[in-house]
Specification:
It contains 10 helices and no strands. By secondary structure, the protein is mainly α. One of its GO terms (molecular function) is DNA-binding transcription factor activity.
Length: 210
């Protein structure tokens, strides 16, 4: 008789396909709550209910896992291409709002503060994540220039800062008791911000042409 196919012995723990997602999500959650100084790998492993060995096989420093976590949560702005600058900027605004109102809304705020308190963070692993976000945003503006929607020499930083920065500032200045109301009307607010910014850009271009 032919021998039966060998079966798995069942020894050891089964591989968890969601382990990396759980570790990265936990990293973002803890960083948002505690900040950089109090974040450490052992704490991440404990809260994610993952063995330390499994974590250290993937990342050996908190800079490495934080870099991976930020990439995990960051949508590339270069992928946003609606065909018009207005559509792209509305999408940038929506992505900004989703990040603020999402499960890890405080992460971006923490990162901006910690970049000043711990500048060495942005000279190593995490610097690449930041650069990717800047590059993606610049692509949106360069495409608009190529389409003839705005003048050559228009500053990508000014436009993107005006859109994303306005939304972030309004979020920070809104009392917690009013955040639900702000979120409910966020789409209209984003469109108003984008139209105001584009109005200024086009007005500046018209003045330069005279």
């Amino acid at each position: 008789m032919p021998r039966a196919a060998s079966q798995p012995s069942g020894r050891g723990r089964p591989i968890d396909p969601d382990i990396e997602t759980r570790l990265l999500s936990t990293t973002l959650e803890l960083y948002g709550d505690l900040g950089w100084a109090r974040l450490n790998l052992d704490l991440i492993a404990r809260h994610a209910k993952v063995g330390k060995a499994a974590l250290y096989r993937r990342w050996q420093t908190k800079e490495q896992i934080m870099s991976a976590a930020l990439r995990f949560s960051q949508r590339s702005l270069g992928d946003l291409d609606t065909g018009t600058l207005r559509g792209d900027l509305v999408a940038v605004g929506q992505e900004t709002a989703e990040r603020l109102f999402g499960n890890h809304g405080t992460v971006r705020m923490r990162a901006m503060i910690d970049a000043k308190v711990f500048p060495e963070l942005f000279e190593g692993e995490i610097a690449g994540v930041r650069a990717e976000g800047i590059t993606g945003g610049r692509e949106i503006i360069f495409r608009a220039i190529e389409r003839g929607e705005i003048a050559k020499g228009t500053s990508p930083a000014l436009i993107l800062d005006a859109v994303a920065g306005t939304i972030e500032h309004h979020y920070l200045m809104t009392p917690n008791s009013k955040l639900k109301e702000f979120e409910a009307g966020i789409d209209k607010y984003i469109e108003s911000v984008v139209d105001l910014v584009l109005g200024g850009v086009k007005s500046q271009s018209s003045s330069a042409d005279r």
